[in-house]
Amino acid sequence: MSLDLAADPDGVAVRTQANGGVLAQLTLSHPELVLRPTLRRAPEISLEPEYWTDAGGDRTLLFVTALGTEFGAFETALGTDPTVADPVLVDRAPECRSYRLELTERAITLVEATAAVGGRLRGCSSCREGWQFRLRFPDRNALVAFNDRCRELDVSVTVDHLRPADTEGGGPVSLTEKQRELLTVAYEEGYFDVPRRISQDELADRLEVSKSAISQRLRRAIAQLCGSAFA
């Protein structure tokens, strides 16, 4: 990978990987990807990592947001998940909760693998198969190197979307699988028609999720599309 030099307004030279690059949306699957055992036992819950932090003494803490309603099953599953320890509920709302978790030695995160090849994690969310990563790589060689690292760990990689970073502003690369599914059904069933041919309640019944989850997912999906289009 190549690093170009750029100058900021103060004349300080900085290295840049911002020219060109590759945007990729990848679905990653492995039994010991972080929280994968919990996701299998509580499939109605959607997870979005907030951030990782070094807590000292070789301890890494992960904060995650959980969306859904079946929190009892989710919290029970957390208690037996070998990839995390000491789960703590730190915030709650009717259909949204935040947790602090300690990663165990068995947890596979791939955050380090992303950084090692010069990649940037732009977003991450749970999906049926495991985790969906939205990544930016400085070039295709970095993407290949990331894929090689996944292969070494026996992590299955499925490419959902791939495009040059120079084409930023359009395309579904920033959407999660559940957001894409919702927008597809909403569009096909006439949610965006005037007048509407399907309501949020009916979308919720169709996709077997709560109305609140549908509303939140719609807002986030549309916001991400607008942010990509107007960037």
From TrEMBL:
Gene3D superfamilies in UniProt: Winged helix-like DNA-binding domain superfamily/Winged helix DNA-binding domain
Q: Which residue ranges run through the membrane? A: none
- Domain (HTH bat-type) ranges: 175-225
Would the keyword S-adenosyl-L-methionine be found if you checked this record's keyword annotation? Answer: no
Q: Which UniProt keywords apply?
A: Transcription, Transcription regulation
Domain Bacterioopsin transcriptional activator GAF and HTH associated, chain residue ranges per copy: 38-159
Task: Give the superkingdom in one word.
Answer: Archaea
Any Pfam family: BAT
- PANTHER family this protein is in? DIMETHYL SULFOXIDE REDUCTASE TRANSCRIPTIONAL ACTIVATOR
Name of the protein: Bacterio-opsin activator HTH domain-containing protein
